[in-house]
Every structure is written in structure tokens, then in C-alpha cells.
Design the sequence.
């Protein structure tokens, strides 16, 4: 029994005991059979959770499985080639998953939100199902056989609703084909099969990237230039730090929230309740602001930086005669953002590209912030960014 939080890593990690705090585990193969009273963060090629988890579960891997004996108290966030919940498993709140295939055979108390090529519903969902899938009727891709990788049977793309599926809310599925090629929903539910939603979403994100990227180029060009240099010279470390920063933030936010509540409670006890609401309100608002800023950077700023760099590199090769300046910068941003949005509509591959872009951009920002915080950091150059060929 571990009375505190546990951080463990290895080639093969198997936990059969009790962890009273949070558990963070990583390895090629990670199996959690014991009880975790806090939240669970697992990453590996093969991830399997078979025991009860009091908090939320965050799983990243080639294969992520919520086993038949798993009872997740809160939410499940799963990312991988295959995300699967076995029959008998239960999720106390909602499921958020992305990958090639999401196979739901267990019970989910609230909502299900997925983005995958294949989605199979065979369990009970207490709320709504909102998903994006690939074309129905296409053949499943051949199995991927790689040394050390788990063998995963691939499902056919599209939506599959089994006889045992029970969905209390609405079934809203966007399939990337023309209207009329979708699956079948049970009575009282509806499937939205349209490419219009995806196109509208991509157009909206393109506009957002142009606005945010343009503002960064105008008011913080040195950051854009340096982040681009870091992306070119250290792409893999940038992606690694992007992943690390994201995981640390996800773990740190609930911990800070708990500490905030404890501090507010102590303040309330000392002042006979006078400062409890003030401390909780100010602290909660500050934490919400930090979360909002991080989400904004994660979802927009990182993509704008990578899009601009990609556009500049392409223009440097295709149109080296272009005069440097604001017009060239905006053109590069528009080109990179347009290419990104085109790639983003590709089922599964588009999602993978989005994750890679975010991690690269976040890692570059981490390196830039690290440089700026050094006592001997060089002063920022306010000149417009130049092409780095």
C-alpha cells in the first residue's frame, strides 16, 4: 500500500496493490490491477486498467484498454490507435477518446465524445454521444505488425451500433462523406452525416490562426522567429517537452484546485468563515484564467507558430524572390494554415497531425520561455522574422 502519490516507470509496469493518491505510470506495457484512490495517468505501447480508480483516468498508448473489472470514478481521457472499454467496465462521468478506433463495450454514466475512423457502440451511455468517424463501408486497414507492439484487431471504419447499445441521450455522429451514407440509429435518435460541419470548423480555425498569428507577427516577432529556429534545430526535443508540459499541467491543475480549497478552508476556520469565499473566489478565478490561457496557447498559438514556419519554408523554396516584409509574413502564415486545415480533415491522420503540431509548438514555446527566464538571456530583437532555410 502506498499512502501518497506514486510515480513509476519501466519496461513492464504492473501494479497490484493500493495507491491512496494519484498514480503516474509509463512503460512499454502498463497493467493496473490494483486500486487507485486518486487519478491515474498511464502511457505506454499497451495500457490496460483492470482495477478501480477514484478519480479520472488519462491514458495514452498504441492500445488503451479499460478492463472488465475497471471502475473509473470520474472521466476517462484516452488517446491511441485503439481505445477500448470492455463489457463490465464502468465510467462514472464521461469518456473523451481519439484514435483510429474507439470500441465501447462498457457503461458510461454521462456523455461520450470521440474523434476516430471507427466507432463501435455496444454498451450503455447515460448521456449524449458526439463523434466524428470515417466513411462507412470501407475495408478495415491491415493489422500493423511491429516488434514489441501489441497485436490489435482493426475495426472497419464508420459507425457500428450493436444490439446491446443503450444510449439515453442523442446520437450525433459526423461522417466524412456525402449525406445518405451513414449507419442506423435506434428510434428517437439522430445521426448527422455531413461534411459541412467539418468544413465550417476548419474554416473557423483557419480564420483564428490568421488573426492570432498576425497579431503575434505584429507585436511579438522576436518570439515567432526564435520559436521557429528552435523548431528547426530541435524538433524531437520540442515534441517531447510539449508532451511533458501537457501532462504536467493536466496533473497539476487538480492538485492546485485541492490545495486552493484547503487554503480557503483554513482561512475560513481562522476568520470564522469571513475569508473562505474570498480566497476561494479569487483563487478559483485565477486558476480558471491560467487554464483558459493554457488552453488558448495549446489550441491556437502553437498551431499558428508551426503554420507560419511551414509556410515560410515552403515560400523560401518556391518563391525565393519574394520581398521580406509584412505581406510575405502573412502570405506564409496563410499558406501554412491552409495546408494544415486541408490535412486536418483527413480522418485519423488529421487528428495525429494536429497532436504533433500542438506538441511541437508547445515544446518550442517552452524552450523560448526557458531562454527568456535565464539571467543572461539576450535581449529580444524586435525586427520581423526572417526566412530560415
Sequence:
Amino acid at each position: 500500500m502506498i499512502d501518497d502519490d506514486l510515480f513509476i516507470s519501466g519496461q513492464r509496469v504492473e501494479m497490484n496493490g493500493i495507491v491512496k493518491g494519484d498514480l503516474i505510470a509509463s512503460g512499454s506495457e502498463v497493467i493496473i490491477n490494483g486500486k487507485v484512490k486518486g487519478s491515474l495517468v498511464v502511457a505506454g505501447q499497451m495500457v490496460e486498467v483492470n482495477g478501480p480508480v477514484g478519480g479520472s483516468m488519462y491514458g495514452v498508448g498504441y492500445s488503451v484498454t479499460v478492463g472488465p473489472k475497471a471502475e473509473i470514478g470520474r472521466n476517462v481521457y484516452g488517446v491511441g490507435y485503439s481505445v477500448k472499454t470492455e463489457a463490465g467496465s464502468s465510467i462514472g462521468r464521461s469518456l473523451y477518446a481519439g484514435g483510429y478506433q474507439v470500441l465501447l463495450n462498457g457503461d458510461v454514466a454521462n456523455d461520450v465524445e470521440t474523434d476516430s475512423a471507427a466507432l463501435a457502440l455496444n454498451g450503455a451511455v447515460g448521456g449524449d454521444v458526439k463523434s466524428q468517424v470515417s466513411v462507412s463501408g470501407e475495408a478495415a486497414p491491415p493489422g500493423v505488425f511491429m516488434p514489441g507492439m501489441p497485436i490489435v484487431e482493426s475495426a472497419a471504419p464508420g459507425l457500428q451500433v450493436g444490439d446491446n447499445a443503450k444510449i439515453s441521450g442523442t446520437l450525433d455522429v459526423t461522417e466524412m462523406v456525402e449525406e445518405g451514407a451513414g449507419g442506423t440509429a435506434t428510434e428517437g435518435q439522430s445521426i448527422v452525416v455531413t461534411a459541412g460541419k467539418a468544413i465550417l470548423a476548419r474554416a473557423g480555425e483557419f480564420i483564428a490562426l490568421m488573426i492570432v498569428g498576425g497579431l503575434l507577427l505584429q507585436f511579438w516577432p522576436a518570439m515567432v522567429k526564435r520559436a521557429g529556429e528552435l523548431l528547426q534545430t530541435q524538433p524531437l526535443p520540442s515534441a517531447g517537452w510539449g508532451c511533458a508540459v501537457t501532462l504536467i499541467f493536466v496533473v497539476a491543475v487538480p492538485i492546485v484546485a485541492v490545495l486552493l480549497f484547503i487554503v480557503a478552508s483554513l482561512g475560513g476556520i481562522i476568520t470564522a468563515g469571513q475569508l473562505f469565499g474570498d480566497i476561494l473566489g479569487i483563487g478559483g478565478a485565477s486558476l480558471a484564467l491560467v487554464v483558459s490561457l493554457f488552453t488558448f496557447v495549446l489550441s491556437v498559438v502553437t498551431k499558428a507558430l508551426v503554420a507560419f514556419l511551414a509556410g515560410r519554408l515552403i515560400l523560401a523554396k518556391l518563391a525565393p524572390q519574394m520581398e521580406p516584409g509584412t505581406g510575405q509574413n502573412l502570405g506564409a502564415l496563410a499558406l501554412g494554415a491552409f495546408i494544415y486545415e486541408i490535412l486536418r480533415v483527413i480522418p485519423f491522420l488529421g487528428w495525429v497531425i494536429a497532436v504533433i503540431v500542438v506538441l511541437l509548438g508547445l515544446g518550442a514555446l517552452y524552450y523560448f520561455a526557458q531562454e527568456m527566464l535565464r539571467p543572461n538571456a539576450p535581449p529580444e530583437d524586435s525586427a520581423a522574422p526572417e526566412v530560415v532555410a
Q: What stands out?
A: The longest strand covers residues 6-15. DSSP finds six helices and 18 strands in the chain.
